[in-house]
User: Which sequence fits this backbone?
């Protein structure tokens, strides 16, 4: 199997799995359903077309920069009513500011190549969760001849080095028998506006050392300095 790597960086992103009505929340990491929807749009598929072939791709990500959670209060007045166009005085929308994620999709080479081409030449505009959040800079990093986790670990850091910690967070699709995993309603069955449906998928969320970070840590001299005045 091969892995297509994407770089998700932007001033603002928003990944709302349960965002409804007057409160539009965001997850702290990109959702698989949103990435599949972004790819389907780039390929030129309509909302009522199947995405089953895309759902079989194994999805995972590395969190290079968590980002800052922001909340925006928006109003859009209905001229014929006292409420907004949403039926209420306003809507709260949550965003992640200045976040950076390395996303991987593992699957067959031919499918990944068609996805990479579509993301570089999209039929419909690409955005990171919401239309107000276009991606920044290079989106497609390329296809790697590695498994999903190996590709995510080996790829160079995409955020500022000062943000790097001792261990990095990974979020990957998990099998039913994997320990320390959980389920999330984040598998897009249909994007049809008349019948939007999402199923559950199993996820493994953990922290580990990337290959590049492991090399740097092993090369460092141990810090034995102690300053009692810092405590």
Assistant:
């Amino acid at each position: 199997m091969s892995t297509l790597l994407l770089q998700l960086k932007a001033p603002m992103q928003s990944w709302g799995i349960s965002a409804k009505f007057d409160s539009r929340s965001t997850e702290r990491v990109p959702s698989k359903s949103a990435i599949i929807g972004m790819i389907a749009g780039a390929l030129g598929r309509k909302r009522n077309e199947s995405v089953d072939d895309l759902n079989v791709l194994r999805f995972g990500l590395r969190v290079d920069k968590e980002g800052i959670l922001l909340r925006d209060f928006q109003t859009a007045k209905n001229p014929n009513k006292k409420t907004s166009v949403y039926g209420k005085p306003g809507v709260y929308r949550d965003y992640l500011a200045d976040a950076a994620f390395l996303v991987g999709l593992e699957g067959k080479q031919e499918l990944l190549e068609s996805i990479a081409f579509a993301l570089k030449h999209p039929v419909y505009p690409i955005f990171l969760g919401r239309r107000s959040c276009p991606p920044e800079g290079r989106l497609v990093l390329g296809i790697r001849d590695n498994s999903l986790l190996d590709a995510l670990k080996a790829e160079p850091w995409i955020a500022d080095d000062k943000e790097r910690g001792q261990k990095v967070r990974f979020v990957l699709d998990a099998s039913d028998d994997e320990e320390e995993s959980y389920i999330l309603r984040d598998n897009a069955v249909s994007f049809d506006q008349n019948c939007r449906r999402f199923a559950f998928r199993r996820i493994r969320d953990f922290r580990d050392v990337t290959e590049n970070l492991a090399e740097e840590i092993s090369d460092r001299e141990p810090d034995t300095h102690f300053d009692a005045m810092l405590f």
Notes: The chain has one domain: 2-10+28-64+99-225.
